[in-house]
UniProtKB/TrEMBL annotation:
CDD domains: TyrRS_core (cd00805)
Organism: Pukyongiella litopenaei
Quaternary organization: Homodimer.
Gene from which the chain derives: tyrS
GO cellular component: cytosol
Localization per Swiss-Prot or TrEMBL: Cytoplasm
Cited Pfam families: tRNA-synt_1b
The entry's keywords: Aminoacyl-tRNA synthetase, ATP-binding, Cytoplasm, Ligase, Nucleotide-binding, Protein biosynthesis, RNA-binding
BP GO annotations: tyrosyl-tRNA aminoacylation
Protein name: Tyrosine--tRNA ligase
PROSITE patterns: S4
């Protein structure tokens, strides 16, 4: 379907590639032109930080606010106790209340960088669905809400169907998740006038359930909009790398490593990522994405600088770029590289270089470190490292030592003063 939107927000969604599907293009477009549309995205508190995989939807909320509407970031203090089964092969581990609260505190730090919170018409709201889920009466909930759900229909949703088709167990606990998420939309509409839920395309069934429930209970028209589930051009899930998840909190992933992740974008993804993860004009994204040969590297630096500035601030982006220039162009040791600091006691009579590669986070195991060395992918102070049995003593580590895994991943090892 080709739809030509008139609202600023829908134009941005289509022009920049955020839009996968919408429950009613015309009606939502009309609502966006008629006034402020409160819109929510839910985030279950499964970790202490959000990661790059969440960033596309955070940018959607940012554009929503920039085009005159009200973002609602809904923390899943209640739903995290159940766990979203969508497209998973197994049940999520259940977290306790203290761990959920700690995770929510870590996640909140990210949103404040992208959205303006406050009491104004278009100021963002931070809510927690534990507010209405924790005190539900089970029998009342079954009678008032459960009766609106068809098990036959719920079984037909792709997120559930794919799990059952693989003959993988789906617990009754998880099956309740989509009812709770639907109830979130109902409560947000009732309490805050929320008209739109956004999420990744894997949330389509949950979103549609919430729309149907709200129409049945309140007779209100509300809408759903989904974004594409992104993979990189080489097929990897967005936000994953050799080192694990690309976290958005600086205490879980340094701004330099975050910057480097974007700098290492493959050529084929540059234009798309500029449109999705920066606020550069679309024409400029097209121009930068069309660069060829070595010139595309300048576009990647622009991408890395812009995304890192939004997430960590301009100072952190500048420091990361300066470190990259020092490390890659001059062969030096940048001040902003991830650093492993050891005490004299830890070094003792000496510490193996394999252990240093593991402890610095460049590899996950000693076996991986030895394979990296055997395949000539490891360097020590920019010199090829060929001896996996090398032991470094306190004298060698008196000055910072630079470890490299391949051409793009580096870390410093230093001794505590």
């Amino acid at each position: 379907m080709t739809y030509h939107p008139k609202s600023d927000f829908m134009q941005v969604m289509m022009q920049r590639g955020y839009l996968a599907d919408c429950t009613d293009y015309q009606a939502l477009d009309d609502a966006l032109r008629a006034g402020v549309v409160p819109t929510y995205i839910g985030y279950d508190a499964t970790a202490k930080s959000l990661h790059v995989g969440h960033l596309l939807n955070i940018m959607m909320l940012r554009w929503l606010q920039k085009t005159g509407h009200k973002p609602i970031t809904l923390m899943g203090g209640g739903t995290t106790k159940v766990g979203d089964p969508s497209f998973r092969s197994d049940e999520r581990p259940l977290l306790g209340p203290d761990e959920i609260d700690a995770n929510i505190a870590g996640m909140k730090r990210v949103f404040a960088k992208y959205l303006t919170y406050g009491d104004g018409d278009t100021d963002a709201l931070m809510l927690n669905n534990a507010e209405w889920l924790d005190d539900l009466n089970y029998l009342d909930f079954l009678r008032d809400i459960g009766r609106h759900f068809s098990v036959n229909r719920m079984l037909s949703f792709e997120s559930v169907k794919s799990r059952l088709d693989r003959e993988q167990s789906l617990s009754f606990l998880e099956f309740n998740y989509m009812i709770l998420q639907a109830y979130d939309f109902l409560e947000l509409n009732r309490r805050y006038g929320c008209l739109l839920q956004m999420g990744g395309s894997d949330q389509w069934g949950n979103i549609v359930n919430g729309i149907d429930l709200t129409r049945r209970v309140l007779d209100h028209d509300i809408y759903g909009l989904t974004s594409p589930l992104l993979t990189t051009s080489d097929g990897r899930k967005m936000g994953k790398s050799q080192g694990g998840a690309m976290w958005l909190n600086a205490d879980m992933l340094s701004p330099y490593e975050f910057w480097q992740f974007w700098r290492n974008t493959t050529d084929a993804d540059v234009e798309r990522f500029l449109k999705l993860y920066t606020e550069l004009p679309v024409d400029e994204c097209n121009r930068l994405g069309a660069l060829a040969g070595s010139e595309i590297n300048e576009a990647k630096i622009i991408l890395a600088n812009a995304v890192t500035t939004l997430c960590h601030g301009a100072e952190a982006a500048d420091a990361a770029a300066a470190t990259a220039r020092e490390v890659f162009e001059k062969g030096g040791v940048g001040d902003d590289l991830p650093t492993l600091t050891l005490s004299a006691d830890e070094i003792g009579d000496g510490i193996s270089v394999v252990q240093l590669f593991v402890r610095s986070g460049l590899v996950k195991s000693g076996k991986e470190a030895k394979r990296l060395i055997a395949e000539n992918g490891a360097r020590l102070d920019d010199a090829p490292l060929t001896n996996a049995g090398l032991i470094l003593d306190a004298g060698t580590l008196a000055n910072p030592v630079k470890l490299s895994a391949g051409r793009k991943r580096h870390a410093l090892v230093r001794v505590a003063a």
